[in-house]
Amino acid sequence: MTELLRTLVARLLKIRYAKFGIVGASGTVVNMVVLYVAQELLFSGIAAPRERLYVSLALAIFIATINNFSWNRLWTWADRQAPAATSTITAGTPAPSTLTLFAKYLLASWLGIALQYGLTLWLAHYIDYRYANLLAIVLASVSNFIANDRWTFRKK
Q1: What gap in Å lies between CA 143 and CA 141, rounded to an integer?
Q2: CA distance 23 to 35
Q3: How far apart are CA 31 and CA 62, in angstroms?
Q4: What is the pLDDT of residue 132?
Q5: Which of 22, 53, 62, 83 is the residue whose CA sits 20 to 30 A from 42?
Q6: Dihedral (C-alpha) 55, 61, 67, 68: value to the nearest 10 degrees?
Q7: What is the C-alpha separation between 23 and 44, in angstroms, rounded?
Q8: CA 76, CA 154: separation in Å to the nearest integer?
Q9: Which residues neighbour 15 within 8 Å (Cβ) at sequence distance 6 or greater?
Q10: What is the distance between the alpha carbons of residues 8 and 10, in angstroms, rounded to a whole number?
Q11: Spatial CB neighbours of 43, under 8 Å, sequence gap ≥ 6
Q12: Which residues 6+ apart lie within 8 Å of 80 measured at CB?
């Protein structure tokens, strides 16, 4: 019975990680589009492309983080949300507001965000900033999943 339970839990976690990956892929698209538009158009008044990258990357990460939080909350970890009618997770514990949950998401994702930002800037010295950003996103995604699965959207 214990082995069957372990297998079932392993499958569920894989499904959740697949959902997280799909949401992450959508966030990657959002991130890359915002980064390109900001770098090449929106902040084109900033003369040095390297200086422009600091602002463009911060904006891209912020917008993609909002996208990812929204979809992860609504889909990846939907089973861990409090029912709207009761507004409590457990008896006597109020359900966190969306803003509180977003703040937790940001805190849980800080390592991944910092990794993505730092790695992109460093790798951009050697390769095109778009490829640098894509590689940094992939490397940072694992820490984001673990932190959000274990803390932000943890099972009550």
Answers
A1: 6
A2: 18
A3: 8
A4: 96
A5: 22
A6: -170
A7: 30
A8: 12
A9: none
A10: 5
A11: 52, 55, 56
A12: 153, 154, 155, 156
Q: Residue 82 in 3-state DSSP?
A: coil
CA distance 98 to 39: 31
Residue 92 backbone class (left: φ over 0; alpha: ψ -120 to 50; beta: rest): left
Percent helix, strand and coil across the chain, each rounded to 5? Answer: 80, 5, 20
Q: In order along the chain (156 residues), what is the average pLDDT of each group of 10 residues? A: 78 78 94 96 88 95 96 88 51 72 90 94 96 94 85 79
Residue with tokens 């991944």: 112
The predicted model scores a pTM of 0.77
* Tokens coding 100: 């509180």
Which of these, 55, 61, 80, lies nearest to 141 by C-alpha position?
A: 61
Instruction: Name the token pair of 137.
Output: 């996103």
